[in-house]
Amino acid sequence: MTARYWCESAWLGGDSAVDSVLVSVDDGRFSAVEPGVPCPDGAHVLRGVVLPGLANAHSHAFHRALRGRTQVGSGSFWTWREQMYAAAASLHPDSYQRLARAVFAEMAMAGIACVGEFHYLHHDRNGRQYADPNAMGAALVAAAADAGIRITLLDTCYLHGGLSEAGEYLQVNEVQRRFTDLSADRWIERLGDAARLESSHCRLGTAVHSVRAVDPDSLAKVADLARSRGMVLHAHLSEQPAENEQSRAAHGRTPTEVFADAGALTAGFTAVHATHLTDGDIGLLGGARCSCCFCPTTERDLADGIGPARRLRDAGAALSLGSDSHAVIDLLEEARAVELDERLATNVRGSHDVPSLLRAATVDGHRSLGWEDAGAIAVGQRADLVAVRLDTVRTAGASPAARLATVAFAATAADIHTVIVDGRCVVDDGHHVSIDVAGELHASIVAVMS
Amino acid sequence: MTARYWCESAWLGGDSAVDSVLVSVDDGRFSAVEPGVPCPDGAHVLRGVVLPGLANAHSHAFHRALRGRTQVGSGSFWTWREQMYAAAASLHPDSYQRLARAVFAEMAMAGIACVGEFHYLHHDRNGRQYADPNAMGAALVAAAADAGIRITLLDTCYLHGGLSEAGEYLQVNEVQRRFTDLSADRWIERLGDAARLESSHCRLGTAVHSVRAVDPDSLAKVADLARSRGMVLHAHLSEQPAENEQSRAAHGRTPTEVFADAGALTAGFTAVHATHLTDGDIGLLGGARCSCCFCPTTERDLADGIGPARRLRDAGAALSLGSDSHAVIDLLEEARAVELDERLATNVRGSHDVPSLLRAATVDGHRSLGWEDAGAIAVGQRADLVAVRLDTVRTAGASPAARLATVAFAATAADIHTVIVDGRCVVDDGHHVSIDVAGELHASIVAVMS
Questions:
Q1: Model-level pTM greater than 0.95?
Q2: Does the interface ipTM go beyond 0.85?
Q3: Whole-Å CA distances, A224 to A265, A267, A329, B426, B437
Q4: How close B445 gets to chain A, by Cα (Å)?
Q5: What is the mean pLDDT of residues A212-238?
């Protein structure tokens, strides 16, 4: 049966929003998209500006438990990591499923139709495989199903405890035992089992944590596997200057060069952060048409710095966006922050225009996660619709020509009233249709942090 | 008659929020503040974390009409200024009162109890005084009364059209004719008439637009007047490198040095932006115990750069906050942005702890605006209360020790449910008690921008 939605205005990929768009949905996909059509009887009316589904290309769901807590006092990226490790140590499959279900539901309320979960919390507290070796991954996939969003489970290879200043790989510590499969071959073995998690709402992707946690030989194995199976590959890359120094000490090369030499840089590769790059790094990432996933609210939070988003795009890279540590879950804030932080770094306005920022949040984010059929309101695409109100105090007063810019630069997650994912309504009138999100966030965080 | 409010938790100025605070209000002021008290019958219950009234120390109300519009395409600070001038040209007292009433009501909904309106739109489109020479200022004062917030009308001296690269003061252009009183003496004369606008909710303050618009001799006259009458003095200072270059060309000194030599730098002076400063400038502003008003969302928007907030505080300056161009009206976002942007600039976390950021948003902002008796929940202070929900998706999960940090780093204006100003309830359950804010924003912006 065909469902019809009449959008007061919608973004169809151009420079501004288009008026009066009637979209038809069959079997979870758009079967017709007609601009300039009066609202027919029986169509669901979506007021404001309607966007395609947003893609959150980099998430660590459990970090949501740290929100606020890590802002007490001062510290560095590395002291923040201690707090993050303490949270990681407390999780098991049941508690993680409850927490992730609430976090993914918060994402749904922010218009996120698809999350890329960068998952390395594989084993129990003693580093032993669970009876189901993918129990934690399965918990995340079930959580996304409950929340009504798609997931790319980025099953992450994590082998070493870091690099010493002298450039030697370190043993994993007590917490990191949960992360490691001990070898790339055993990671590949577990990944084979994880394939059963794939479904209409779940894809499996690959990741290496970083050059700090995976040596070049193992990295090449992961990259080979990803390429041969057509899976996406994600990795943290040059988030902190210390990582670059360690990589140079260990390998005589930048992290990007190590990834390049391992054959990892392809259009299926996403470099997460990509903050501290050399000119050569930018050329490598751009030349290979990689995606670079910026996480500006986390990069502000962790004092990472401002990455060269414009230069990466100019070199040929695509941009994607992630809420990463979930200091904030608001992809509109991430999108504008790419431009606003670049303004701070360069004193130039307009390095990224509104359509560029929205493409990063939608179609290019979905591509980074392996969903070529999502992120645009177009016939054949998955039927995601995200309706943003233009009648709140934040958005009121937008002129027709500036509606899209108002959404990108002034709207927040709180202004999103309706979210449809794969043709199913997940958020209605600002409420999740099946989950008491704030209540479950509270209960699940108290359970793991007490 | 005594009104009583029982706060689930409240910030009384310390490092964290205090539980179960009963506050009593008589004649618009706090008559008792009792922590650790069970909720008595008949008290109004305020859930979440209750803050003192926020102070928005730098506002140009009419810029709200530009939100979103200035994000279409690219440009610089100076092209942005062209759009801002076009909006300025279209206003008259009635339309400005309607627009400002809606903008100030948006501020009330964001917990802002007091606004510093940096007002230089004095005259009619031809540069002639209105029949009431303070008709525009009166419109702003009436708008604040309607919206239920206090105002410091920062009556701004604006004499010249800018500085040439050679350092010569330029004639005002067609739009700027509305801004200028032609001489400091005539500005002083008009200010004398404006004194009648003062009331229990309005104070008069002084401002000079900038070293670009006011020559040193005139600046000295304004500073003398402000000092002799005990009025605050505000000025835009070193927002853009070009201003510094022009000042050096014209006067052989930085803008801060020009203000210092004019006798302007006192504890009653607020430097707005203070972005591009020399070490000497920082010493002058700190040594004189000036306030420095950071407007980070505007400074991001206009690609101004990141000012040295921590070094200014270390030198002795106070911080205050402003939403300035109203790209966003959310003082919580301004507060955390001071810290987050400094993290980007320095790669250090925790230059400003949570109480420091909240002091800038409350008591120090009020001091910058000349209200020594507001901005703290304490006996004798004006009875402002701003209640922030801890049960929304953004704030849920906060531990008791992290409640205040969660408010500062994760809450938004959308999480503020109750606002009391001078003992009167202005915002209840997230709604302004007397104004359809989004509706009036839309109508008043369409009226002036069409």
A1: yes
A2: yes
A3: 11, 14, 33, 62, 57
A4: 6
A5: 98
